[in-house]
Amino acid sequence: MNSPLKVAVLGCGSVGSQVVRLIGEQADDLAARVGAPVELAGVAVRRIDAPREVDVPAELLTTDAAGLVARDDVDVVIEVIGGIEPARTLILSALENGASVVTANKALLAEDGATLFEAAEKAGRDLYYEAAVAGAIPILRPLRESLAGDKVTRVLGIVNGTTNFILDKMDTSGAGFADALEEAQALGYAEADPTADVEGFDAAAKAAILASLAFHTRVTAADVHREGIADVTAADVRSAREMDSVVKLLAIAELVPAAGEEDPGVSVRVHPAMIPRSHPLASVREAYNAVFVESEAAGQLMFYGPGAGGAPTASAVLGDLVSVARHHRQGTRGVGESVYADRAVLPMGETRTRYHVAIDVEDRAGVLAAVAHAFAEHEVSIQTVRQEGRGNDAQLVVVSHEATDAALAATVEQLRDMEIVREVTSVMRVEGTEE
Amino acid sequence: MNSPLKVAVLGCGSVGSQVVRLIGEQADDLAARVGAPVELAGVAVRRIDAPREVDVPAELLTTDAAGLVARDDVDVVIEVIGGIEPARTLILSALENGASVVTANKALLAEDGATLFEAAEKAGRDLYYEAAVAGAIPILRPLRESLAGDKVTRVLGIVNGTTNFILDKMDTSGAGFADALEEAQALGYAEADPTADVEGFDAAAKAAILASLAFHTRVTAADVHREGIADVTAADVRSAREMDSVVKLLAIAELVPAAGEEDPGVSVRVHPAMIPRSHPLASVREAYNAVFVESEAAGQLMFYGPGAGGAPTASAVLGDLVSVARHHRQGTRGVGESVYADRAVLPMGETRTRYHVAIDVEDRAGVLAAVAHAFAEHEVSIQTVRQEGRGNDAQLVVVSHEATDAALAATVEQLRDMEIVREVTSVMRVEGTEE
């Protein structure tokens, strides 16, 4: 048998403890698949005596993460601490030291992936991160490798389980956002401080990672237009129902024509949107994740599964571990960062979207004409308009054709200022439909 | 720039012509992703002057496939002829000659994959075949690499578009098999001779390939228990509807306890089965494919997309091309055949399944007891029994708990011989439900 591969695990929380468990339990299979035994070199933790989900032999535990990654017998470092620091410094130190790295750290990759990828390139080592997006769902490897001969045109993902759980509750029970959030917290699907999920920060980091891979272009979290779900109302969800649609928080990365340029640019955004119930993403329930990929030759693909959780995320980490361990042993590398296309990342205003707008209006002649005029002034063409109720309940529901987000936003601004408009009750983008 | 990689394409039918088109159209992207230009060395066809979907420069066309794979300037051979011979001889010759191979040939891999994999191993070259199962859907790479650190326990796939289209029509329109097949043929979803699809041969080949990868065990088409959909009746489909289920042709590969053995064995089968409408596979409509994977740590994953067609299949071929081209250039290999687990492949009789049985019975006292007795005699326990109609229309619908397929089949045999049983009108396995 070949000499063992030594693995250092940084962090022993819900993911780290499952990684440690699987490395132990699957030892025989890992050895067969890697071509050498895989052994733990050490597990870096904050407190040696903290309670944890798995028994780690005391001699493997250390609070000295920096010392662990500097050891010259460590072949692969698995970083599951999360956050920017000390994770970044530890990963850079590991790579410099000749180790290959597997990480689940979406925040760090989306903020400063370039530094890490350049270090990996320089060191001639792998930096793999399947677990950073959509937990156990294999999506990064298919984008990077399976679709390497195709041209991806759009990625639409439900990549945050917390918000999907909340929106699903709102859809099935008619609850408002606050009640649905409370239920999600009670069931452990949302944290006490739900900001990162609810405001779309988590999804935006994943969107940046997906966009970078899909379009071979460096995209950071700062490039992602981000809107959360805190303002989604029960009325929005009802409006969606009436259109046989459902509200989902989508991470969207797509190629779009860039004004005055020959080559398309990249639009990356996270926001709630209505999608038709017939769309494969509409049936993604509860805290599940799914990523829908459109490409020129393959057509429409969907990848579905648990987007979070210790064991599922650990499964993704271990898959990467087997790959990088094989490469490490053979002295080769897998596919590194690919940013050759270097496309322009477009501002949200230039992105072409569709809007669903519900407007409480005065019930008098000429209202529809006035509203239609407002759309026309901004060169937004209307696909459908539905008039509902009479008198004080009169409502117009307008769905636009595709237009720039800026033109649509300006239209809504103008509607809000019109005398005949009592209130714009719901504004939401519409995705997943054909023009 | 590095020196170009030369690619020979064998076959220029619906897949081959799309491969040739994409190699041309995506040349810049392929060069960037491989790290060297990718050029066609030649395209082997049966007849030079046959009409084809893509313009191939005349100097590249040849009827001498054997001569093309023997050329010493060919780095990668793409085989999209299909069938056993001459495909096998050509692939073996290509590998011996030092080329890496990409193939979409499920029949050959399922019949004699071992010979090909051994030749690839000996030559130190890649043999990749993502396109052989479920067209554009990346499923083999995720099984082989993304889930390499996990333990797959079951794969449930809708891997034949023709039969899914037919069963979907039967479900939505109430049509019988013959009418639905005729519609599929009229729309180009079924061939004039539909045997390979309808009788499950195509799905069985894919099941063998999926099982081999999932369980690191050599499984051939001959190991797969195969039943087609020609005997599925409108009554079966109605029966499924009444159980809020739908009939699908499933390719199933799973780990099952083997009688008298400590290690589980592998059961691989293709047959129509009822699955609940709430199961993710139930919403796979028309000619789409999907593969549902259950594993210990990742949980339940699903991969969905177009399972056939020239361009989608070519996308999978090109993805493999990029991988093997990179390896070829670097003098490395990807993951080869992995059969270390070498599990026993169990006969269908030992496989544990559940049956749905609808029985026309005499309407008299004691019928239910007699039927229940027949199940009990074979140690098959009943989960639910529903009695419908009276008099000449009296029917019992029984759904069993899990039991060996042999015990269930014997129970049905006995029911057919009972005097109080007028007819066993529907027998179908039930999948995708929890026990």
TrEMBL record, chains A, B:
Enzyme Commission designation: 1.1.1.3
Organism of provenance: Nocardioides faecalis
InterPro entries per record: ACT-like_dom_sf, ACT_dom, Asp/hSer_DH_NAD-bd, HDH, HDH_cat, HDH_CS, NAD(P)-bd_dom_sf
SUPFAM superfamilies, per database record: ACT-like, Glyceraldehyde-3-phosphate dehydrogenase-like, C-terminal domain, NAD(P)-binding Rossmann-fold domains
Annotated GO biological process: methionine biosynthetic process; threonine biosynthetic process
Residues annotated to bind NADPH: 106
Annotated protein name in UniProt: Homoserine dehydrogenase
Reactions that this protein is recorded to catalyse: L-homoserine + NAD(+) = L-aspartate 4-semialdehyde + NADH + H(+); L-homoserine + NADP(+) = L-aspartate 4-semialdehyde + NADPH + H(+)
UniProt cross-references to Pfam families, sorted A to Z: ACT, Homoserine_dh, NAD_binding_3
Coiled coil: none
